[in-house]
Amino acid sequence: MKLNQAAHRAIDHYLNAGAEAPAPPSSTLFCVAENASSETLIANSYETFTSVTALLLDLSDEPTGKQRDVALAIHQLSELGVLLVDKLMERESAGAGS
């Protein structure tokens, strides 16, 4: 049995030397595609922040007091994210045009 296993390992080593080993299974539920372009990542980030902003503004109409303050604080943070991504988009488009 050991000789058979050794033979298979040797054959695999020499005949499949260029073959890539399969990636180990991931334990993460969601991930970002490795080959996603910068443009795709920026656009999707912007859309995500915009969606969060819309949801928070809608939700902040109903609560009062501390809950409203928290919703508005989260909204402000998401708006900062939008501004950062927007600036990055400007830089990327300016760099692409030159």
TrEMBL record:
<protein>
    <recommendedName>
        <fullName>DUF3077 domain-containing protein</fullName>
    </recommendedName>
</protein>
<dbReference type="Pfam" id="PF19619">
    <property type="entry name" value="DUF6124"/>
</dbReference>
